Amino acid sequence: MTDALKGILPVAPTPFHDDGAVDEAGMCRVLDCMIDQSVDAICILANYSEQFVLSDAERDRLTRVSLEYVAGRVPVIVTVSHFSTQLVIDRARAAQDMGAAMLMMMPPYHGVGLVPSEAGIFEQFAAVSDAISIPIMVQDAPLSGVSLPVPLLVRMAKEIANVSYFKMETPFAADKLAALIEAGGTDIIGPFDGEEAVTLLADLDAGCTGTMTSALQPELIKPIVTEYLAGNIDAALNHWRDCLPLINHENRQCGLRAAKVVMKEGGVIGSDHVRHPLKPMSARTRTRLLQLAKERDVIALRWGK
Question: Binding of pyruvate: at which residues (predicted)?
């Protein structure tokens, strides 16, 4: 990957059978569906991939299956987050060796009582960068409970060779993105937003160049980014208005289950199972999700039919 990555880089859900076993064939169908959604890249093993309920062996297998199956059709970003620096290094090397185009990392965390110092966070990212040669995306998300102030992020971008992409999901993400871009200058190669694109328009106003959503409706969210970056702000706003009800329902009511429910309904995968302690979506929330998805004619809802 030589050009800076921008556009829409959605997270692939990890499909399971009804008994909870990983569905490898379903994973391949998910990847094909996402490529047909005209995504610019695919992220695997992220939080919306239920990475926190996967064993190490399952992670390794899903990484290999996904990278071999995509086979360079689009760049694949592999999430390698872990509290242990050595485990992150091991995951990063393995992902690069298998063909990952980029890595994504959250800062190390293990609950509010076990958060490393800024020095420890910087050192973990630096150690991973020293071990690989592909870009690293820093995921700044409330889930970790770790504060990543702009001066720390700028220092990472300027002093750590492969840290150049940033996914901002914190409250008031637009202000933080704008401050990061202003202070980091050309060292900030890929400022991205997340959270299902619920703050995308504000984040584009702040200077972001792409978004990492779920796999629910990337083909409909992508024009918001492409039109905005082309200077067609009114067109971007119109696309935003059209997408927002489904974006909001996913973000506030459904979470990571949304893409799975829609993909099952559309024949992409055979089950929308989520591993315990996660629970299935309520019938009420599911009904509204499918109604909104049908109104938008999302690809995932009809891909396998």
Answer: 212
